[in-house]
Design a protein that fits this description.
3-stranded antiparallel beta sheet, 6 helices, globular, about 25% helix, single chain, 5-stranded antiparallel beta sheet
Length: about 240
């Protein structure tokens, strides 16, 4: 069963494979599918979501590498992505990455995950080809890092020279819902499109995850401005 959204009077009716849902307000925070949901609701988004898969390595517990804190590179304004970095995990371990390569499906967490329709949608989007033409060296490097681990390790060694291949094991992967304009530019800021009865979160870049509660409170305030919401205290 296909998704369908209609507005009847003061009510939204959303038909999904999981059932039919009704409500006075529609909030679209669908991430990888936010642009598609917006179109179903009658809104033409200013950007297209292009999925980029990010691959990570994890530092082995046996590795004798003196890491204590997060390590990030100095951002290069000439490139759209931050680059590989070391992130401390909640269990005390560290992950290193990610790469940034085009995913062949919006939920393409593995290299073999291919959705033909979504691949065609990405490859026929003019913004993607303009992006590649603007950053050919970076795109080639990211693809090579994904396919050839020694190059990935070399990028990590720019931050931690002591790191060796034996210190790392394969980690997880993620798919970044990258909002891209037809010009090939990446949307770097939050993008919200509001109508009288709907709110579409079309882009929520970093630090969206760590700021999720504050963002949720802000969105709730836009939908229900007369309601008194509790103040969030800083952690």
């Amino acid at each position: 069963k296909a998704w369908r959204m209609v507005q009847e009077g003061n009510e939204w009716i959303v038909e999904t494979p999981s059932g039919v849902f009704r409500g006075r307000c529609l909030i679209n925070a669908a991430g990888l599918y936010s642009d598609k949901i917006a179109r179903l609701a009658g809104v033409e988004p200013p950007t297209r979501i292009v999925p980029f898969r990010g691959e990570y390595y994890r530092l082995k517990p046996s590795a004798r590498i003196p890491l204590r804190h997060l390590i990030y590179p100095v951002p290069d304004p000439a490139f759209p992505f931050l680059g590989v970095h070391f992130t401390r995990l909640i269990d005390g371990g560290f992950e290193a990455g990610p790469s940034a390569v085009l995913a062949w499906a919006r939920e393409g967490y593995r290299r073999r995950d291919i959705n033909l329709r979504e691949s065609v949608e990405a490859l026929t989007f003019p913004g993607l080809w303009r992006f590649i033409a603007r950053y050919p060296r970076m795109c080639a490097t990211e693809l090579a890092m994904s396919l050839w681990p020694p190059l990935f390790i070399k990028a990590l060694q720019r931050l931690v020279p002591e790191i060796r291949r034996a210190d790392l094991e394969p980690g997880g992967t993620g798919v970044r819902a990258q909002a891209m304009e037809r010009t090939g530019s990446l949307q770097q800021d939050f993008s919200l499109v509001q109508t009288p009865t709907a709110l579409h979160v079309l882009n929520a870049p970093s630090p969206a995850a760590t700021a999720a509660l504050a963002i949720g409170q802000y969105i709730a305030g836009l939908i229900c401005p007369m309601r008194s919401w509790p103040k969030l205290s800083p952690l």
